[in-house]
Structure to design on (1115 residues):
């Protein structure tokens, strides 16, 4: 393993892998990505793989839209099929408040160039013939949204980063840092120290642990979300459907299985990734209510993953402390990190290589926003 | 491939005959059969085609865990016929690749 | 929510004994099994069992099942057949799928007796219909009464391979050969002898190289291997068979234990990964006990005792005081330990002795020396006497127990060879019908001036008739001379084994041990044209997801996969309904070979519930009931 490098990236999930790739692509190949287990073993490996542009905060919309364009080009650029289903996303509204919210969002999203429209229940049934629209007032449909296999995407980023000269060190755990003045001078791992010029914290749900190694409180915290998968059947559903009212999201993957999960308002911050039987019952009730024809289809596996939550459900990018000037973060994605990974990688690479993000501004996502006390909370979270 | 009628140690009760259909053809099984044993007794070994390579697959583990025996039974795909008891009038079909969900159900 | 004190998962010999033992001491016990008929593997075992009378030696497995079920019922165990346990959750709730219902149980203690599952062997076209596990063949044959095929190649000469080959012959199905890749027959020689004298060749150092067939198995190629398991060029031989039966070992079924969070250890001598457990059968989790094959692959006789130990200790650990006294506890533990000790003596117990010592973190205790085989055990006595052809130290003594004249001695250590006192033996032949290995014969040298009469334990149909002229066969199933059937004895006291006596010339009296009807010609081996030689790299490894050996090796070579998890993420191996049970071992073997490491270094994937695919409609209904 290298003892000295330019950039150390902590975390072998989608954010770390995308950042490593984009750095190498921009010409900065002296990069070491350290992962304490194997690639995708953290949050990325447990996520549903969805990518949507339908957010309520303009910055998120722009990040997501650009990321989706990058996912569309992924197979050609990376040479790896990532099981892309360009089936769109369908969001469903059940209450007048939700409906108004959707209309407002769609207007803002369209202003930002997103191909999205409001659809009535009849149209919803045309887009997804098997869905039960009882209680739905309207929907927001973006045919341009998509879903992919997260494992294959990370593999694509990592293998191309390696091809371009990046070192990926697995089973390498960061245990601390060395400092010189107000800079981090080296990363301490279980396999030795790595001197470096820049550190990127892409540790997902463990982002706060890494921050605390430097004595920095990042304000992020892990939260369990349960998810499960069925046996495969022939394609019958193209969009990924999100229903905030019921609290469920579901998609039919390229493999043919249904992948679905929800948010549980009773979850407290924790590292718990164990499944519960109540989840199986609840999620089955929710899905069979929305898709009655799936009642004979079997769940084969349940698991859980951790969202790296930030106080306002939006990511935190960039520098976080004057005492560790070269310690950058790309964290706090609150359950939508995967879909923002392509652009996150690019913007972090630009920040490191050029000293500033060029393709899109990231000032609004700086940690400084919490000091002001004002929060623009992202609402479209499930 | 055929029923064992005589055995030095075991006695096999002659269960009541039951009719069912397999890919539209009328077949006969016996009470107490699983769908798999009824098909095997009738000489049917191919229950489905695998999801990607379309290889013929059939009976394998006999305990409902390997899913090799998945067939469409009365319209329900992925039915493990090795642990499903045969009932009179069942409609059993070869599952070609992934099964289809009948969205009208 | 069903509340109970002790939940026993698995209704095989271990589970039934555990449940009965615990209930006997007053515990409230519920026994769950995923089949709707209890008895586990016992209900398919038509042969007589080994061990001592304490474990029902000499009784057929199918009959032992009935006895154990009756014992459990009488003790007051509540049965829940047809319910598959799908998970043991952190809140202490155990979930199960029963037909159309999702059930929740809250037990104080859980005894896991889930048995084992069969190992897969992968070779070109091993996914064709017609390649079956030995257990599946037994179920089809002995439970459903349906023949799996017409002509079978048995892969594996352990006890299961030898026994199932014999059972196939009993069902009238032709067995072309039994092949074994190592240089030794791993099962009891008495089981091997039974099929050998019926003409089934047992080929050691042989393996299947491939099978073929349009839509199901039509033929197989068998090849000899050298001491490095490499095929010997030019040794390939084709067999016209329509069924390949795989009997290549068992792996403990431990998914529930993994999922519950028990500490697991890799112990090859016990069959793979097992939950660490102490000598009271308790795992690292206070409320979970384990027994039977799930705790380490062994015989059913041991499973019964392990079950009793688990049941006794679970009852003893209940919060409330039961009928169990300290005195009873101590006495029973001493007794059960002694029985297990007896069953684990001898060469066949070596693996288990080593495995259990690994778990206990101790050096394996040396087995005490066993008396050697008497020099003249095959001596040819005057008159009619029993000849004992049992040549291995198998813990077993039903011959001693059944003899009404005390003519057979095994002794306190049931692993000793049985010896005959010719003075006491009256050749009543009762022992012939109780020897689980069918290795006792009566030889009567004074049948006639020119003939010796040999009486053979016979479990085949059709039975010959007195006076029939037959071909007399030797221990290898080869024709020796013509013979005549002199007697056919059947009856209830013979335990469904018939005694057939055949008279042959004196000089063949020590050679003839079987016969066949003279009219029966050896089945013509159909001439078959082997198909094109398939590429071994196209062998299917993950059957659920259609993943080939080539894809897995590419993932290792090109994509840097070095673990089961990484291969799973790239290729989906282990994401299918069987959750890796078919492919995990094979993938670990490929990883070990390609990376030059030991199989023990690789962990299987994480086991996640539900352990059986659960229909969403059933789960949704349970949610509605939960709310009301």
């Amino acid at each position: 393993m290298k003892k000295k490098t330019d950039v150390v990236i902590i975390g072998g999930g989608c954010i770390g892998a995308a950042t490593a790739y984009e750095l190498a692509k921009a010409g900065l190949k002296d990069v070491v990505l350290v992962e304490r287990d194997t690639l995708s073993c953290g949050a990325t490996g447990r996520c549903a793989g969805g990518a949507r542009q339908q957010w309520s905060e303009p910055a998120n919309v722009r990040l997501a839209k650009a990321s989706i364009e990058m996912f569309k080009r992924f197979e050609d650029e990376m040479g790896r099929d990532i099981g892309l289903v360009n089936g769109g996303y369908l969001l469903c509204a059940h209450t007048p408040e939700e409906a108004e919210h959707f209309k407002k969002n769609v207007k803002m999203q369209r202003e930002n160039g997103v191909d999205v429209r409001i659809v009535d229940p009849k149209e919803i049934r045309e887009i997804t013939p098997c869905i039960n629209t009882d209680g739905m007032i309207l929907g927001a449909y973006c045919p341009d949204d998509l879903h992919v296999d997260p494992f294959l995407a990370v593999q694509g980023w990592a293998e191309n980063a390696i091809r371009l000269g990046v070192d990926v060190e697995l089973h390498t755990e960061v245990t601390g840092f060395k400092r010189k003045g107000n800079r981090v001078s080296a990363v301490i791992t279980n396999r030795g120290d790595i001197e470096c010029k820049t550190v990127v914290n892409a540790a997902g749900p463990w982002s706060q642990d890494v921050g605390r190694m430097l004595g920095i409180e990042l304000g992020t915290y892990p939260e369990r979300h349960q998810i499960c998968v069925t046996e495969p059947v022939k394609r019958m559903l193209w969009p990924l459907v999100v229903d905030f009212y019921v609290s469920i999201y579901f998609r039919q993957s390229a493999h043919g299985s249904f992948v679905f999960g929800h948010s549980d308002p009773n979850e407290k911050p924790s590292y718990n990734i164990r499944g519960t039987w109540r989840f199986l019952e609840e999620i089955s009730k929710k899905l069979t209510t929305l898709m009655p024809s799936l009642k004979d289809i079997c769940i084969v596996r349940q698991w859980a993953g951790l969202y790296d939550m930030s106080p306002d459900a939006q990511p935190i990018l960039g520098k976080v402390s004057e005492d560790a000037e070269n310690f950058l973060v790309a964290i706090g994605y609150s359950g939508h990190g995967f879909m923002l990974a392509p652009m996150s990688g690019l913007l972090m690479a630009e920040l490191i290589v050029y000293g500033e993000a060029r393709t899109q501004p990231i000032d609004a996502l700086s940690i400084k926003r919490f000091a002001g006390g004002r929060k623009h909370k992202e609402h479209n979270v499930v | 491939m055929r029923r064992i009628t005589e055995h030095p140690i075991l006695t096999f009760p002659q269960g009541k005959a039951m009719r069912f259909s397999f890919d539209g053809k009328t077949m006969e099984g016996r009470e107490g059969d699983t769908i798999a044993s009824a098909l095997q007794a009738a000489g049917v070994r191919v229950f489905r085609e695998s999801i990607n390579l379309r290889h013929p697959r059939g009976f394998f583990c006999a305990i409902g865990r390997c899913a090799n025996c998945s067939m469409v039974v009365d319209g329900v795909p992925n039915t493990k016929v090795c642990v499903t008891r045969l009932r009179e009038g069942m409609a059993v079909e070869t599952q070609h690749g992934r099964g289809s969900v009948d969205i009208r159900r | 929510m069903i509340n109970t004190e002790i939940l026993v998962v698995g209704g095989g010999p271990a589970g039934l004994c555990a449940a009965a033992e615990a209930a006997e001491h007053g515990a409230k016990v519920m026994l769950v099994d995923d089949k709707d008929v209890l008895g586990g593997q016992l209900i398919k075992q038509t042969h007589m069992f080994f061990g001592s009378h304490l474990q029902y030696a000499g009784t057929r497995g199918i009959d032992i099942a009935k006895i154990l079920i009756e014992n459990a019922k009488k003790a007051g165990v509540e049965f829940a057949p047809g319910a598959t346990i799908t998970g043991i959750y952190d809140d202490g709730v155990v979930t199960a799928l029963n037909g159309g219902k999702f059930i929740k149980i809250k037990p104080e203690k859980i005894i896991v007796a889930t048995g084992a599952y069969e190992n897969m062997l992968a070779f070109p076209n091993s996914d064709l219909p017609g390649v079956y596990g030995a257990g599946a063949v037994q179920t089809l044959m002995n439970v459903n009464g349906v023949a799996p095929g017409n002509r079978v190649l048995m892969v594996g000469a352990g006890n299961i391979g030898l026994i199932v080959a014999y059972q196939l012959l009993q069902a009238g199905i032709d067995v072309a050969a039994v092949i074994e890749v190592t240089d030794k027959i791993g099962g009891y020689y008495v089981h091997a002898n039974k099929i050998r004298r019926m003409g089934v060749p047992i080929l050691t150092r042989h393996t299947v190289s491939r099978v073929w067939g349009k839509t199901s198995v039509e033929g197989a190629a068998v090849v000899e291997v050298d001491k490095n398991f490499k095929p010997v060029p030019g040794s390939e031989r084709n067999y016209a068979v329509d069924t390949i039966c795989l009997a290549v070992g068992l792996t403990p079924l431990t998914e529930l234990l993994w999922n519950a969070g028990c500490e697991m250890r890799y112990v090859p001598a016990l069959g793979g990964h097992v939950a660490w457990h102490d000598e009271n059968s308790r795992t690292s989790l206070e409320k979970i006990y384990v027994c039977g094959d799930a705790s380490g692959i062994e015989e059913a006789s041991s499973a019964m005792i392990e079950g009793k130990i688990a049941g006794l200790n679970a009852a003893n650990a209940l919060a409330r005081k039961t009928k169990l006294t300290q005195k009873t506890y101590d006495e029973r533990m001493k007794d059960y330990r002694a029985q297990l000790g007896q069953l684990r003596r001898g060469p066949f117990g070596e693996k288990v002795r080593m495995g259990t010592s690994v778990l206990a973190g101790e050096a394996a205790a040396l087995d005490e020396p066993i008396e050697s085989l008497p020099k003249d055990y095959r001596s040819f006595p005057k008159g009619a006497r029993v000849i004992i052809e049992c040549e291995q130290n198998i813990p077993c003594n039903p011959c001693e127990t059944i003899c009404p004249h005390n003519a057979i001695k095994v002794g306190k250590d049931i692993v000793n060879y049985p010896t005959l006192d010719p003075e006491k033996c009256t050749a009543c032949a009762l022992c012939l019908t109780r020897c689980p290995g069918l290795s006792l014969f009566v030889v009567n040298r004074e049948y006639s001036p020119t003939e010796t009469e040999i009486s053979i334990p016979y479990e085949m149909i059709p039975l010959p008739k007195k006076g029939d002229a037959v071909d007399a066969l030797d221990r290898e199933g080869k024709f020796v001379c013509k013979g005549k059937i002199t007697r056919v004895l059947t009856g209830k006291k013979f335990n469904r084994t018939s005694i057939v006596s055949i008279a042959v010339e004196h000089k063949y009296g020590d050679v003839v041990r079987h016969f066949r009807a003279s009219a029966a010609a050896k089945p013509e081996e159909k001439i078959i044209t082997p198909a094109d030689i398939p590429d071994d790299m196209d062998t299917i490894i993950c059957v659920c997801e259609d993943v080939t050996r080539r894809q897995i090796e590419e993932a290792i070579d090109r994509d840097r996969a070095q673990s089961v998890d990484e291969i799973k993420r790239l290729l989906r191996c282990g994401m299918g309904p069987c959750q890796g049970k078919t492919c995990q071992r094979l993938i670990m073997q490929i990883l070990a070979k390609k990376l030059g490491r030991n199989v023990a270094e690789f962990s299987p994937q994480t086991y996640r519930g539900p352990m059986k695919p659960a229909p969403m409609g059933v789960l949704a209904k349970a949610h509605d009931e939960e709310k009301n």
User: Anything to note?
Assistant: The beta strands of chain B are 17-22, 25-30, 48-49, 56-57, 70-73, 76-80, 91-93, 95-96. The domain at 17-96 of chain B is CATH 3.10.20.440 (Ubiquitin-like (UB roll)). Residues 35-41 of chain B form the longest helix (7 residues). Chain B has one domain: 17-96.
